[in-house]
Design a protein that fits this description.
Helices cover 43% and strands 24% of the residues. By secondary structure, the chain is α+β, with helices and mostly antiparallel strands. Helix 1 runs antiparallel to helix 2.
Length: 169
């Protein structure tokens, strides 16, 4: 009787070693690949925004579709620090100083004023931040094995760029 119990335990441990750990390794590799892809796509999208000097609903939808093709769901936030040139105009505090004001755009394709596109001025700073909102397979394994319930995103990317030219407007 005791020999069968030891055999069952040995088979159980062998099954874990032979199946669970390789699947965890593959899940971690997939998470790393998804992280790399999302970072590259985010960099590409910021470059597109800064060279075209505009944010469009279609561009946002295409970007969202590309990053969601990794099998994860993402929260996208776009922050634009718009350069408001104030040359030789007086206001109460400064004369001729460039000022920035922030416009935050959610990633659901809702542009301010329900517009189809937002044109940007040269020198404006665009920051796109992407975080996954779901748990991927590796996070689920770690929750099950380690017993931790970590709600932080595992796949995230941030890219920033300065609008260099508005000649396309």
């Amino acid at each position: 009787m005791q020999d069968t119990l030891i055999t069952v335990i040995a088979i159980f441990i062998a099954a874990i070693v032979m199946f669970v750990f390789p699947v965890m390794y593959i899940a971690k590799s997939n998470e790393t690949i998804a992280q790399s892809n999302v970072q590259a796509l985010t960099n590409e999208y910021v470059n597109e925004i800064r060279t075209e000097a505009k944010i469009t609903k279609n561009g946002m939808a295409d970007f969202s579709q590309k990053i969601n093709s990794t099998g994860n769901k993402f929260d996208i936030q776009i922050k634009v620090s718009v350069l408001d040139e104030n040359p030789k105009k007086e206001n109460t505090t400064t004369i001729g100083q460039n000022l920035y004001y922030d416009v935050v755009i959610d990633g659901n394709g809702n542009l301010p004023g329900n517009q189809d596109e937002v044109n940007l001025t040269e020198g404006s700073v665009v920051t796109v931040k992407v975080e996954n909102t779901n748990k991927d397979l590796y996070q689920m394994f770690m929750t099950a094995i380690m017993g931790t319930n970590n709600d932080t995103s595992a796949i995230e990317a941030t890219a920033t760029g300065i609008v260099t030219s508005t000649s396309n407007i």
